[in-house]
Amino acid sequence: MILDICPSPALYPYYQQENDTVIVVDIFRASTTICHMLHNGATAVIPVADIDEAKRYKEKGYLVGAERNTRKCDFADCGNSPFDYTAERVKGREVVFTTTNGTMAIKQSEDARELLIGSFSNIGALISHCIERSEHIVVLCAGWNNRINMEDMLFGGAFFERLSSRRRVSFGSDSVRIAQLLWQLAKKDLLTFLQESDHYPRLVANSAVGDVAYCLNSDTLSVVPLYHPADKKIRAHP
Amino acid sequence: MILDICPSPALYPYYQQENDTVIVVDIFRASTTICHMLHNGATAVIPVADIDEAKRYKEKGYLVGAERNTRKCDFADCGNSPFDYTAERVKGREVVFTTTNGTMAIKQSEDARELLIGSFSNIGALISHCIERSEHIVVLCAGWNNRINMEDMLFGGAFFERLSSRRRVSFGSDSVRIAQLLWQLAKKDLLTFLQESDHYPRLVANSAVGDVAYCLNSDTLSVVPLYHPADKKIRAHP
């Protein structure tokens, strides 16, 4: 089993292999929020890349989540906070979702053999899923406008540690070594470590700091979100 | 003064700013070798992206260095080892040079306000140069086929440490934090640290391991290689 970590959506063509299991992560907050939606009973998440498309869905009566630059878009029902998506709101519904970075990462890798959505909340569930069926896994970090970020790389390091405790895992490239070393430095106090990162002050400035602890909590959900290329929707794997 | 680190040539569009001083690094070995050529008296280095162009220069009588996948190309006079470029060979001559990753990084950033070539060998000279004239510095890592690598990121961390000991330096993005943390882990024994990296076994397999120590030695050269966009040549800054 080989694990690689692609640090930016723009680099996926250089990390891609034919038999990829891709795990898209956008820890703050899109991928965490998608896991939360499906856990709370949304039947599917429809990721869309641009605002106009999201607006057209809204006009048709869909529940729409939309965020740009850490803020909820005015026209949308919800933003990018997991707490926007309560069971009362999403159970039995499809949710249209567009965010600054997360949906871009999904579009970039939608041709992968298997595309999953990852977060600390479902990391254990993902590992059990991958051990059963994956040979070459790529953690695809959503980053920030194609720049690399700390929190998504740290997830990659955590994923390596957990996976390699259960299977023999080879490094796909130096980015796994880098992520693993960062994770060793950060894991004792992830929250304090990430206060010195690009995105933390953006979350503070946009009153989203209350989401941080939830986004860093491991193994709170057992859902494995799987992208279905046929209809371009994300559903919980049965 | 702001320092950023772009971890792959393909990401430069996302790190680019108008007033950039870009420092292209390809520690193993192209950028180290360019510094060595100019130190040994080459009047200019002409970086070319493709093999056919290098062959045309060769037919015109130029001294040509060419490497692909860690090996010297058969048609060329020299490969990518600094030791190929002795003073006897290069003094007073222009050297045409093409390598797997280094020349690609130069082409990607040739529109920068100022484009320099960096290596551990001239790190102190670069810092003195940048303190005089730069506001926004981007260390552009050549990487490996657009994937990020350890040794170029480590240079970025070393550059941050040295620069911030002389000036107040702001982090351009999380990649500087990442590089700085890696450098703290590696700096006591850089050679041992890098034996666990993607490129080290490639150097061993291609009998280039003798170049490693030279490439990791700091402050052995005082040259500052500067790219001249008008004629697309790299010369020592006077």
Q: Please tally the helical runs of chain A, counting DSSP H or I stretches of 4 or more residues.
A: 11
- The CATH C-level name of chain A is Alpha Beta
Spell out the CATH superfamily of chain A: ComB-like
Question: How much helicity do the residues of chain A have?
Answer: 25-40%
Please state how the strands of the largest beta sheet of chain A are arranged side by side: 7-2-8-1-9
Percent strand of chain A equals 15-25%
Distance between the termini of chain A: 24 Å
Description:
- The structure is a homodimer of 238-residue chains.
- With 238 residues, chain A is an alpha/beta fold.
- Chain A has one domain: putative 2-phosphosulfolactate phosphatase (Alpha-Beta Complex), CATH 3.90.1560.
- Helices cover 38% and strands 21% of the residues of chain A.
- The first copy, chain A, has 11 helices and 11 strands.
- In chain A, a hairpin with a 4-residue loop joins strand 10 and strand 11.
- The longest helix of chain A is centred in the middle third of the chain and has 15 residues.
- Chain A is globular.
- The interface between A and B is medium-sized, with 28 and 27 residues.
What are the defining features of this structure?
four-stranded mixed sheet; homodimer; 238 residues
